[in-house]
Amino acid sequence: MGCSLLPLFVAVLAARFVVADPEEHGPVDGAPPSKIAVVGAGIGGSATAHFLRQHFGPEVQVDVFEKGEVGGRLATVTVNHNDYESGGSIIHSLNLHMQEFVKQLGLKYRRNVAGKMAVFNGEEVILEETDWYLLDLFRLWWRYGISFIRLQMWVEEIMEKFMRIYKYQAHGYAFSSVEELLDSLGSSGFINMTRRPLSDSLLELGVSQRFIDEVIAPVMRINYGQNVSIPAFVGAVSLAGAQNNLWAVEGGNKLVCSGLLKMASANLLQAQVNSISPIHSGEGLQYQLSFTTATGTASELYDIVVLATPLQASVGSGVQFQGFTPPFDELPGSYHSTVATIVHGYLNTSFFGFPDPRLFPFASVLTTDTPDLFFNSVASVCPVNISAGFRRKQPQEAGVYKVFSPQLLEKSQLKTLFRSYYSVQVTEWQACPRYSSSQRLPPVELHPNLYYLNGIEWAGSAMEMSSVAAKNIALLAYHRWNRQTDMVDQRDLVHRIKTEL
C-alpha cells in the first residue's frame, strides 16, 4: 500500500493515538524484555502468548489475563451429557496456523458427519443439496447460470493471494497495520475490498442478483448475522469458510486455546484488567496494569502489552487508558450481537414444508434475508466428541439443534421451530464487528510496545485471522524491541523472498 492511501486514516487516528516512535521501543542496551502481558485468552490471545514465547525465548515472563473462560468465543455447552460448540465451530483446511497448533498439541481432527443443506425463504425451500454432486451442479447452473463458477474463481484467487502471509511470516516479516498486511498480500485491491460492499463487487464480477439473494446472503447470515452490504473482503473470508473442506477439533475447538497457553508456559491470571498506564523510569517505558482478581486488586509493570480483546464501547472490555498523551479510550465502531440457541427437541419440519419428518432430508437450513424470518439458520449439531458408532439423529427423533438469530427467541418462536423440546440453552455473543464499508481499520500499534490484536477482525473475523494477527504482533513486538526495522513493512516481499531462497 502506498502512502497515498493512508492520509485520511492517519488524520482520523492522530487525535486519539500516539504514533509509535521506533526509538521508544527496546532499551538502548539491547536487554530483552522481562515481562509481557497479554489481555484476553481467546484464540488470538492464546496464540499470541505461544508466538511470543517462540520469539522471545524461555526467560521472559508471559502473563495472560482473562476475565471469563479460556477460549473466549470458542466455547461449548453441555446437553444431555454431551458437549456442543456454542461459538466458533468450523476451521478451513487452508488455515495453516490452526493446523500446526493441532499437530503440536497432539489434538485430533473431529470425525466429519455428513449432512445436507437447504435454503429457506420463509415460505418454501428454494435450494437444496442432494446425494448426487453432478445433479447439484446442474441445478445451480440451471437456476443461476455461471454465477457459482465466477464466485468460486473469485474466492480461490483471493485465498491464493492470502496464503502468501504464511511465507512472509515464516521468513520473519511483520506489518505495523492491518492495511500494510493486506497491501503486502493483495496490493490496493485487498484494501479497496475492505471499503466496498460485497454485493457491489459480486455484481461487477458478473454474479447475478438472484444468486446473491439466494446463496450469498444466507451464508453471510449464518456466518456473521449480517447482509451482503458488508465489505467485500469480509465476505470473501466468510465464503471461504462456507466451502466443503472444513474441520473441527475433537473435544472442542477451545482445547487449542488452553493447549497453547500450556505450551507457552504462560501464567494465566483469572482477572479483569481495569486500567493501563504508561510509566517512564530508569527502565525506560513500561506499562502498569491494574487488575482485579477473586482475592482483590493488584498491579504489575510490563515491558510489552498485547490487547487481545475488543476495545469498542459496545463490548465493554472494562479497560481504561490512563496517563496517555493525547488521551484515548475505546475505539470507534461496535460489535454485532448474535444469539446461539442450543435446543434439545423435535424439529417442526412442517414449518419448512415437510409434514412427515421422516421425509425431511436436511441437517442444516439457511435462510434468505426475509423481513418476517426471526432466525438466520437452524442446524442439527454433533457433539464435540464423536464416537466411531455415532450417527446423526433423524428428524423424527429428538436431536440437538443450534439456532442462530439476531435476537433472543421468544417462546412462540421456539414453538414455531420445534414441535416440542426438552431443554433450551442460550448464549448471546458479541460475535464479530458490525461491518460497514465506511469503517476504517483500527490500528495495531496503540503506543510503543502496546499492541492491539483485534483490529484484524475488522478486515475479517475468523479463528485463522486472529492466529495470523497473533503471529504478526509477536513478530512486530520482537522486531520493534530489537530495532530491526528492515523486518517491518517491507515492500515487494514476493520478489524479496524468492531472492532469499
From TrEMBL:
Residue stretches making up the Prenylcysteine lyase domain: 127-490
Keyword Oxidoreductase among UniProt keywords: yes
GO biological process: one example: prenylcysteine catabolic process
Signal peptide per UniProt: 1-20
Keywords annotated in UniProt: FAD, Flavoprotein, Glycoprotein, Oxidoreductase, Signal
Known cofactor(s): FAD
GO molecular function annotations of the record: prenylcysteine oxidase activity
Pfam families, A to Z: NAD_binding_8, Prenylcys_lyase
InterPro entries: FAD/NAD-bd_sf (IPR036188), Prenylcys_lyase (IPR010795), Prenylcysteine_Oxase1 (IPR017046)
Membership in a protein family: Belongs to the prenylcysteine oxidase family.
PANTHER family, per database record: FARNESYLCYSTEINE LYASE (PTHR15944), PRENYLCYSTEINE OXIDASE-LIKE (PTHR15944:SF2)
Protein name: Prenylcysteine oxidase 1 like
Protein species of origin: Oreochromis niloticus (Nile tilapia)
Classification of source organism: Eukaryota, Metazoa, Chordata, Craniata, Vertebrata
